[in-house]
Amino acid sequence: MTPDVALAAIALPSRMNSAGRVQAAQSPAADEDSLILEASVREPDRFTHIFDQYFGQVHSYVARRLGTDLADDLAAETFLIAFRQRERFNSRNGVVRAWLYGIATNLIRRHRRNEVRAWRATSKLPLPEPTSGHEERVAAQVTAQGVSRELAAALAKVSAKDREVLLLVALGQLTYDEVATALGIAYGTVCSRLSRARRIIRESLGPTDPTGADS
């Protein structure tokens, strides 16, 4: 397994337009969700639509970073906070998904040390010994786990702020504009943090561009 295949889990999607800026893929459905969230201030029951639409996405993102047990609690807390703070949402300043991921990111920060500690521990795990009868399958598993160890070590080296951007793009599948909204930072800051994170990943795993494009 090559490093670029191993990086599929955190691959950085190429969504750049001809000017080099990521398109904010805001669909009519996203616009509708923003209106529904704003309407839920007057009609609280309408928030159910937001929960049904995005809970699975947020839970999956948190689980891939912190594990399922914490994801259950943090995803639920994300939507509780969102419900309580829904009056603060303004559709002119961003889309619902980015707003929710911003809340989730703030909650994940509480567990930042545990997350890094887990990556460092993963990077030191021994490779399993092959067993007879399944040589090809075991060989593939050993290779995959070996690269995962390297990837975990690389992620542990990335600074917390840069890693947040990297994982929101790679695991959350947010556009750069959405990341900027989620974290409350400038678009240019997203680009610079992502560039630093990508550089560390490349240096650790070899000359493979996670985006599939030349830098």
Write a structural description.
It contains 10 helices and no strands. It has helices spanning 3-6, 28-39, 47-66, 68-84, 96-108, 112-123, 135-157, 160-170, 176-183, 187-205. With 215 residues, the chain is mostly helical. The protein is 65% helix and 0% strand. The radius of gyration is 19 Å and the shape is globular.
Helix-strand sequence = HHHHHHHHHH
Which geometry do the CA atoms define?
globular
Q: Average pLDDT value?
A: 75
Distance between the termini: 23 Å
Structural class: mainly alpha
Number of helices: 10
> What is the radius of gyration computed over CA atoms, rounded to a whole number of angstroms?
19 Å
Give the biggest beta sheet.
none
- Strand share of the residues? under 5%
The tally of beta strands, per DSSP, is 0
What is the helix fraction of residues, given as a range? 55-70%
How would you summarize this macromolecular structure in one to three sentences?
This protein has 215 residues and is mainly alpha-helical. The protein is built from ten helices and no strands.
SSE map:
Elements: H1 3-6, H2 28-39, H3 47-66, H4 68-84, H5 96-108, H6 112-123, H7 135-157, H8 160-170, H9 176-183, H10 187-205
Looking at this protein, list some descriptive labels.
mainly alpha, disordered C terminus, 10 helices, 215 residues, disordered N terminus
